[in-house]
Amino acid sequence: MSLPLLVLTGETASGKKQVGLAAARAIGAEVIGMDSIKVYRGLSVGAAAASPDQVSGVRLHVVGIAPPDVPFSTGRWVDEAKKAVASIESRGARVAFLGGTSLYLRALIRGFFDGPPAQPEIRARLEAEAARVGIGPLHRRLAETDPDAASRIFPNDLRRICRALEVIEVTGRPITALQEENTKRPFDRPFRVVGLRLSRETLFARIEARVDRMLAEGLIDEVRRLLERDALRGEAAGAIGYREIVKHLRGESTLAEARESIVTHTRALARKQRKWYPRFPEITWIDRGPETPTDELVEKTLQEWTRAE
């Protein structure tokens, strides 16, 4: 029987990157990124990419593999993850997934439904409508026709809102119903899923500190370089941190206003993630206090990853 696949997840800014990379290094595991922004090349500071010291001795997969102006779907992530698992295990190494993108976690554990082929004409029409009247009316329309999909898609996630509406228009059925009937798991094997959990106060304090660190480490220059190359589009352009700095560089907000918007939107993301996680009873939670040493979190993660082996 194959060994369980290892997973470390948690809300944004929970510190899972540092803990997960250290835990993977300790057991010689290779890491597959489970983050929808870190898949893009050139998005380093704003994506909170791992530093060279953190990565040292750990081989990473499905990180920095796509240009930031090309959409990267959950289906593609599943395909890349399957190839990475096969490659890692061919070398006799353990596999550890690391990240907090809920759609990727669900695809990994529950399975993935690719759906009917994309319809560019319908997508273009919906995107044009959003440009005229805003994303809000499209999200409200989705809530009326597929409330389950609307509840799990961020109100500003234009790509996924359009996809859900597109599926309804093409098939006459909600994407949620089709997913329930046709979802397939990419890996027919057990998982050991660990999550880092923080109090609201601790998490929000870490979010503010991380935003300030990103600004100090050159987020504005990173966004400026991407804009100069016309390489910031689609989902990458809408990512938290990037869209706020784009507005600042266009003169639509002060730096202080951009910083506050990044903090506010990151907190909203964390709240959304917190509502998602109860759907995954497989997760074994490790509570992290404001002063919990990283070494202690690494040890607890390893205990859960390797129990009964």
Topology:
Blueprint (H helix, E strand, L loop, with lengths): L4 E6 L5 H12 L2 E4 L18 H4 L4 E2 L12 H17 L4 E4 L3 H8 L10 H14 L2 H10 L1 H6 L5 H14 L3 H8 L8 E8 L1 H17 L2 H10 L5 H4 L4 H8 L5 H22 L7 E5 L5 H13 L3
Parallel strand pairs: 1-4, 1-5, 2-3, 2-4, 5-6
Helix pairs in contact: 1-15, 5-8, 6-8, 10-14, 11-13, 13-14
Average pLDDT level:
93
Q: Write down the overall geometry.
A: globular
Work out the number of β strands.
6
The CATH topology of the largest domain is given as Rossmann fold
Classification by helices and strands: alpha/beta
Outline the biggest β-sheet. 6 strands, parallel
Task: Walk me through what this model shows.
This protein is of the alpha/beta class and 309 residues long. It folds into two domains: 5-112 and 186-208 and 277-306, Rossmann fold, CATH 3.40.50; 120-182, Histone, subunit A (Orthogonal Bundle), CATH 1.10.20.140. It is 54% helix and 9% strand. It is built from 15 helices and six strands. It has a six-stranded parallel sheet. Helix 11 crosses helix 13. The longest helix is centred in the last third of the chain and has 22 residues, at 255-276.
